[in-house]
């Protein structure tokens, strides 16, 4: 008689389905920026994103020349937003996000720029053109320091999270529960929100708040909900979810 113990087969937990509203928003945004009106798919999503990132520093410099604005606020904003665009390009060269490599239709790329990416350039125009005349809650130097700190820390969190995800999944596919992901489940989104939050604080105008509300709720939150639905297929998901936070440790 064999002494080997027969183990019951491993069963996976049922996958959680995202809420109906999130699924509808996801279907619409996917169609709008990837498949709009069909036809040829001449470019990758990454090319549209990188065009905007690479062009930001030149666009802001052009605005400063056009409006003859060489104020400290204008220079700080160019360094923050333009510098972030360069950081993104370096990140994309080192460890490109596979999700951005998909081919999209001509109108999909146009929609992606007009609905989201192009609006980020409006932030700089508001400040540099003088349309926004910010009265900061703190002394100007202190406010600039706050924005720089927020952007710098957010960039580190975003890059570290994306690098961890890229290299970990190449070696060991599955649920990532260590590193930055030990405490929060979506550190890359937190980093992005800190970065663009710093731009909005620099501009200090209502329009960036509206744009960020749309992006954070209609795109980021929906993506995070779908990501969690996908992660729920792993057996360790339940325990990981209980000991980690969605976005902000100790808060959310």
Q: Can you offer a commentary on this structure?
A:
Strands 1-2 form a two-stranded antiparallel sheet. It has one domain (20-229). The chain is mostly helical and 252 residues long. It has helices at residues 20-35, 45-66, 72-94, 106-128, 140-171, 187-203, 206-231, 237-243; strands at residues 43-44, 103-104. Helix content is 66%, strand content 2%. It has eight helices and two strands, in the order H-E-H-H-E-H-H-H-H-H. Helix 1 (20-35) packs across helix 7 (206-231). Mean pLDDT is 92; it is low at 1-10. The longest helix has 32 residues, at 140-171.
Short description:
This protein is mainly alpha-helical and 252 residues long. It has helices at 20-35, 45-66, 72-94, 106-128, 140-171, 187-203, 206-231, 237-243, and strands at residues 43-44, 103-104.
User: What's the helix-strand series?
Assistant: HEHHEHHHHH
Number of helices: 8
**Pairing-aware structural class of the strands and helices?**
mainly alpha
Strand content: under 5%
Low-confidence stretches: 1-10
Mean pLDDT over the residues: 92
Shape: globular
Number of strands: 2
End-to-end CA span: 55 Å
Helix coverage percent of residues?
A: 55-70%
Structural domain count? 1
Biggest sheet record: 2 strands, antiparallel
